[in-house]
């Protein structure tokens, strides 16, 4: 099931609602999780053993990934857009050898992204995200001539993936987590644009010009039959988020003159990967990795690489020219009539002037908003890029893995044996009841890590159970980090 789908079937028809699938990421901070679970343990001795187990689990999981992460960072140093070319020159590698290394980097990178519960944005998700407008009201497109097509095409040829977007040969967008962004303002120009648009739509309808103008594509329109099927099979774990937009606003004095609040679901984290196109004489080997936060779905164009400067779309020009020609013809015909109706002439002139004003003022306002949003995305929304993003991802993988293991073990310790399905339900219930968080817990991955640690087993009918806290700590054993900490404490105690 796709992560984003229309979901109006459960809401009022006047509302713009989308359905979002719960994700596997656990949003709770690890220290908060451990402290809360430890407080739920009755005996203080068990609480101490549990805290020791949590530390040993983290140290061990970190050691598992250490070598893989080192390889990832070493490979990326060769493709860093700033210093990578110098290091490649020092290596004296052939073009074929560099191709192999960059594919190895992408293999490690995609594994880390999967472990961090990031997902590749699909065409369907982008279509739903762009079916509405938020703060950005200009059509933004990528200058594809400035992007390389070989790097990602070669990777996906060797590593087949389903539901890849149509732009997957040029750049990839990963997303994770869902949030809500709200903006409160007067939005005077946007309200004016909305009023003019409604007046113009009324004018086109009463003058029958609407039937002559080219119709918009119905690609994004929802099939009512399909929507009914979706609403009939809705998962109770799914989120329903309402889009509150200016174009759907009710006309009232309070709304038009006062502040209003608009709302849009966001992608909590977005990572974009791409390579710039090189020249015939100088191939660009740099790989760009950019990390953004809290990007509204309808404004996803903000993270696109190598954006073109926005301008009026061909459809805007076609509608403008056709409307102007038809309006002028209607105006001349009215004037040539023996008894020309003065108010009809005024209505036609007002419609033409209003439409031209709408195009001009809307474009100027949208350009100013676009520049502000681009600046904001660079300074506020962009978390990091390149090596900094990779370091963040590596730590994020460890944190997620550790939290999955701790939660699963705690449930088995407190509630006894469980099947895989029961363990999944219990872990999700714990997160909801104790932390007020809902997520699609990745129980299979958690059980695999518990088995690798050796602290769980299965009975004769396949149910999973855990060893005692003391025995589990003995199985994992004293970690290197604990020995270093003990030695450091002993050295500190011996100082005068």
Automatic annotation (TrEMBL):
Signal peptide extent: none
Residue intervals passing through the bilayer: 317-335, 342-363
Report keywords, A-Z. Membrane, Transmembrane, Transmembrane helix
Q: Which residues form a coiled coil?
A: none
Q: Which InterPro entries match?
A: DUF3754
- A Pfam family: DUF3754
Reply yes or no: does the keyword Membrane apply.
Answer: yes
Q: Does the keyword Transport apply?
A: no
Q: What is this protein called?
A: Aminopeptidase
């Amino acid at each position: 099931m796709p992560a984003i789908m229309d979901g109006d079937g459960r809401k009022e028809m006047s509302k713009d609602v989308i359905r979002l699938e719960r994700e596997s990421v656990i949003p709770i901070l690890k220290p908060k999780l451990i402290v809360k679970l430890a407080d739920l343990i009755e005996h203080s001795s068990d609480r101490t053993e549990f805290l020791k187990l949590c530390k040993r689990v983290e140290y061990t999981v970190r050691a598992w990934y250490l070598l893989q992460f080192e390889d990832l960072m070493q490979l990326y140093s060769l493709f860093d857009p700033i210093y990578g070319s110098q290091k490649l020159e020092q290596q004296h590698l052939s073009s074929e050898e560099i191709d192999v290394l960059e594919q190895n980097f992408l293999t490690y990178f995609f594994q880390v992204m999967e472990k961090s519960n990031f997902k590749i944005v699909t065409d369907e998700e982008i279509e739903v995200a762009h079916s509405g407008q938020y703060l950005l009201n200009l059509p933004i497109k990528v200058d594809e001539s400035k992007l390389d097509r070989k790097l990602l095409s070669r990777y996906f040829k060797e590593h087949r993936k389903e539901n890849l977007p149509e732009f997957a040969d040029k750049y990839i967008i990963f997303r994770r987590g869902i949030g809500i962004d709200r903006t409160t303002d007067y939005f005077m120009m946007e309200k004016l644009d909305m009023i003019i648009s409604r007046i113009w739509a009324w004018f086109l309808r009463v003058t029958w010009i609407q039937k002559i103008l080219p119709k918009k594509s119905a690609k994004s329109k929802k099939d009512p039959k399909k929507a009914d099927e979706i609403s009939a099979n809705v998962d109770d774990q799914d989120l329903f988020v309402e889009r509150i937009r200016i174009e759907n606003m009710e006309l009232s004095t309070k709304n038009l003159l006062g502040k209003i609040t608009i709302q849009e679901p966001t992608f909590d984290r977005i990572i974009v990967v791409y390579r710039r196109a090189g020249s015939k004489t100088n191939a660009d080997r740099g790989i760009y990795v950019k990390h953004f936060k809290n990007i509204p779905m309808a404004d996803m164009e903000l993270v696109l690489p190598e954006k073109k400067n926005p301008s009026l779309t061909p459809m805007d020009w076609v509608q403008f020219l056709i409307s102007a020609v038809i309006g002028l013809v209607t105006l001349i015909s009215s004037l040539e009539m023996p008894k020309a109706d003065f108010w009809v002439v005024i209505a036609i002139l007002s419609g033409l002037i209003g439409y031209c004003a709408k195009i001009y003022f809307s474009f100027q306002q949208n350009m100013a908003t676009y520049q502000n949003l681009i600046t904001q995305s660079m300074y506020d929304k962009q978390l990091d890029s390149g090596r900094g993003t990779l370091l963040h991802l590596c730590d994020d993988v460890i944190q997620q893995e550790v939290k999955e293991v701790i939660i699963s073990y705690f449930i088995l310790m407190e509630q006894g044996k469980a099947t895989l399905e029961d363990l999944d339900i219990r872990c999700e219930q714990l997160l909801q009841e104790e932390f007020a968080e809902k997520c699609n817990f990745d129980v299979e991955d958690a059980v695999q890590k518990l088995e690798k640690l050796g602290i769980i087993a299965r009975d004769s009918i396949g149910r999973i159970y855990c060893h005692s806290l003391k025995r589990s700590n003995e199985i994992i054993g004293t970690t290197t980090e604990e020995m270093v900490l003990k030695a450091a404490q002993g050295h500190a105690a011996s100082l005068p």
